[in-house]
Amino acid sequence: MRSNLIAGLDIGTANTCAVIGEVTGDARRSSLRILGVGQAPTGGLRGDLVTNIDEMTESVRTAMGEAELMAGASVDRVYAGIGGNHIRATTSMGVVAISEDEVTADDIERVHIVARAVALPPDREMVHAIPQEYGVDHQRGIKDPMGMSGVRLESEVFLVTCEITSSANITKAVNRAGYRVQELVLEPLAGARAVLTEDEKEVGVAMVEIGAATTEVAAYYEGKIHHVSILPYGGSTLTADLMRGLAVPHREARLAKERHARAFAQMVDPRETVALPGPAPGQVRSVACELIAHIVEQRLDEIFGMVQGELQDQGVLDRLGAGIVLTGGSAAIPGIVELAQQIFATPVRLGVPSEGLGGLADTVCRPRFAVAAGLALWGADRFAETGRGASTRTSGIVTKLGTWLKEFF
Ligand SMILES: Nc1ncnc2c1ncn2[C@@H]1O[C@H](COP(=O)(O)OP(=O)(O)OP(=O)(O)O)[C@@H](O)[C@H]1O
Ligand SMILES: [Mg+2]
């Protein structure tokens, strides 16, 4: 087994995607040579809820097996995504006295421990504690305080927590499929890693990842993460609307959406029609494409409205100089960029994983692969720092320590 292999595994509510790559590049911003990609419909999930762990395991096995076959290599550990309605994120501050005249590694360690020491209910656990910046005495916005003189060290840490049952189910499905979870990564952070540039994060940008059951948002400015949220609406909501609006079964509604939907009714010729199955078996009727677009537009308008309201409430809407980046499987709907542009009145672009990727990068160059590719890139960043890939065997304790150290620095 090669030691510089990384695997990203995104168990979405509709699709499970696996990406295997080989780390190249330097420690500052690593690159990944894509070797293999695998996909399978996710079984055993209804929304956030696991209804059948065996089916979920089978989806992981299929997606990973396909990626390994394509890569011609096997891995034993994966960076797995976690998302869902149960995720909570907050910013926490820590303050300590600087023990000597200048800040030492020990001070940074202590302030980090203080900042992440929040009381968690017994059913929740921490997914991330990401140091954002430090303050020494009255000076703020310090990226690396090591060696600075002062008496008081502060740190701002972005904390993400999840329900233990949710992370346990992911770990269980991955383990049963024959792999181990190297690290759980919040899906919107992984997606952002794949589709946002460092410049955009500096100027201000919000990634809006529209999947099947969820829409995930991650907003950055001044190079820091300021807000993440996961809304319980996405492509499945559009499918459900079309089922009701067109009176067609679920499968037909999904296919009508994926083949004929447009996000902007104005873009559609009113004379354009498609043939859909009628109410009785064997019947066919003609449906106006404008009607499909109208239904889709209404729901997307509502979802974007919610995202906008949230960004406004969090005080980040006015700071998005680089605008909005749309990604996720449902971002493939034609006209979605134009609709978002109209609603947000900012620049909007489609986000596909490409930066920092080589090899078979074109296989993941689609919005639906943003999270899986981002998970693999997240792993590549870890590898650049720790030298550990997806196929070097280390004990759980060492892996945990490595994870903690990464978040610490
Ligand atoms: N061409 C297309 N046009 C419209 N919708 C599409 C298209 N291709 C895929 N979708 C929709 O995208 C959704 C799947 O996207 P994705 O794979 O990102 O979701 P997921 O990760 O499984 O779900 P989630 O992130 O919500 O858990 C489905 O609702 C699917 O119908
Ligand atoms: Mg997803």
Describe, in plain words, how this protein is organized in 3D:
The chain is α/β, with parallel strands linked by helices and 409 residues long. Among the domains are: 76 residues, 2-Layer Sandwich (Dna Ligase, domain 1); 154 residues, ATPase, nucleotide binding domain (Nucleotidyltransferase, domain 5, 2-Layer Sandwich). The chain is built from 11 helices and 19 strands. The chain has a 6-stranded mixed beta sheet, sandwiched between helices. It has a 5-stranded mixed beta sheet with strand order 14-13-12-17-18, with helices on both faces. A 4-stranded antiparallel beta sheet has the order 7-10-8-9. Helix 1 packs across helix 3, helix 6 crosses helix 7 and helix 8 crosses helix 9. The C terminus is likely disordered. The site of adenosine-5'-triphosphate has 21 residues, from helix 6 and helix 7.
Topology:
Blueprint: E1 5-11, E2 15-25, E3 30-41, E4 45-46, E5 49-50, H1 53-71, E6 77-82, E7 88-97, H2 105-116, E8 124-136, E9 139-142, E10 152-163, H3 164-176, E11 180-186, H4 187-195, H5 198-203, E12 205-210, E13 215-221, E14 224-231, H6 235-246, H7 250-260, E15 273-277, E16 284-288, H8 289-313, E17 324-327, H9 336-344, E18 348-350, E19 357-359, H10 370-386, H11 396-408
Helix pairs in contact: 1-3, 4-10, 6-7, 6-8, 8-9
